[in-house]
Amino acid sequence: MNDFIRKGSVSRTTRETDINISVILDNKGIVDISTGIGFFDHMLTALSVHSGISMTVKVKGDLHVDCHHTIEDTGIALGQALGQALGNKSGIVRYGTSYIPMDESLAMASLDLSNRPFLVFNCDFTNQSCGNYDLCMTEEFFRAFAFNAGITLHINLLYGTNDHHKAEAVYKAVAHALKKAVAINRTDGSVLSTKGVI
């Protein structure tokens, strides 16, 4: 199991976006993010660095319309790539929960790599955007990501006042929960499930 590198890659082209994404779960350090949305690049970089999952994300989207398609489609492709990397999810911890403070803000993420996608998202933002990133797209990104990776994902922003800090706490909380969940803890190739499969 230790010699097997868990990786996935997705190329996805529509009339709205052209996306190439690759992830490596067991090779920390590769972070190459370019979506055309500066704040989103910042959040995805945090997601990669804090999860320990190497990510290459190259996106060209119809930003002349708005950021919606670019962010949502990135979530779809990133979720698919993570799903590839996890395979049948054998040997992994499966669950992860993390509380992350960012100055005055505190976020919690709890997840299960269950193949039963679901999102609970309890986060309120004050402003419409950070830079050219619409804050309402935070929920859309994580919904697309969770449903395409097969994750049950609960995100709660407990409190905060600065929207930059709030969003960053959310992304980092998901990252640290994900880091715990993808870790290998079974060397016999079994899955953590009473059913025998996930």
Describe the structure.
The protein has a four-stranded mixed beta sheet, covered by helices on one side. A four-stranded mixed beta sheet has the order 5-6-10-7. It has one domain: Ribosomal Protein S5, domain 2, CATH 3.30.230. 33% of the residues lie in helices and 30% in strands. It is globular and about 50 Å long. It starts with 6 loop residues before the first strand and ends in a 16-residue tail after the last helix. It has 198 residues and is α+β, with helices and mostly antiparallel strands. The chain contains four helices and ten strands, in the order βββαβαβββββαβα.
Brief overview:
This protein has 198 residues and is an alpha+beta fold. Helices cover 33% and strands 30% of the residues. Strand 8 (129-130) and strand 9 form a beta hairpin.
Give me the count of strands: 10
Structural class: alpha+beta
Beta-strand content bin: 25-35%
Instruction: Please summarize the sheet with the most strands.
Output: 4 strands, mixed
Shape designation: globular
Low-confidence stretches: none
Total number of domains: 1
Draw up the topology in text.
Elements: E1 7-13, E2 17-24, E3 31-34, H1 38-51, E4 54-61, H2 68-86, E5 95-102, E6 105-112, E7 118-122, E8 129-130, E9 133-134, H3 137-149, E10 152-159, H4 163-182
Parallel strand pairs: 3-4, 7-10
Antiparallel strand pairs: 1-2, 2-4, 5-6, 6-10, 8-9
Helix pairs in contact: 1-4, 2-3
